[in-house]
Amino acid sequence: MTTLEKVRLFERYLEMAHGSADATLDTVLDKLLARKRAELTQHRDEMRAELTAFENQYGMTSVEFFDKFQQGALGDAIDFLDWSATWQMYTDVLKYLEALSTEPVVA
């Protein structure tokens, strides 16, 4: 059984139980969410540092770079492939953080 299937089973249980859960379960869920948010925040910060290095080296923001790169205006230099991959992973991490947060995510 996949993790998602397990979560869905538990969600079904909670719906039947009208959302009531015990303190232990609440603590476990809080810890899991905090751990995943911390992990994603660390990845975000590491990738932000990599993006800043590219931005400083090439004199443009990652948003500007990615737009030009997607238009084919920059070529296929290995740095640009790395920058593109890092940017895409960074934006994915921001989406994941947003999904796990109750407050706005700081980029």
Describe this structure in words.
With 107 residues, the protein is an all-alpha fold. The chain has one domain. The chain is built from four helices and no strands. Helix 2 packs antiparallel against helix 4 and helix 3 packs across helix 4. The chain starts with a helix and ends in a 7-residue tail after the last helix.
Topology, element by element:
Layout: H1 3-16, H2 23-58, H3 62-70, H4 78-100
Helix pairs in contact: 2-4, 3-4
What is the number of domains?
Answer: 1
Uncertain stretches: none
Distance between the amino and carboxyl termini: 34 Å
Please report which band the strand proportion falls in: under 5%, 5-15%, 15-25%, 25-35%, 35-45% or over 45%.
under 5%
Features of the shown structure:
107 residues; mainly alpha
Summarize the structure.
With 107 residues, the chain is mainly α.
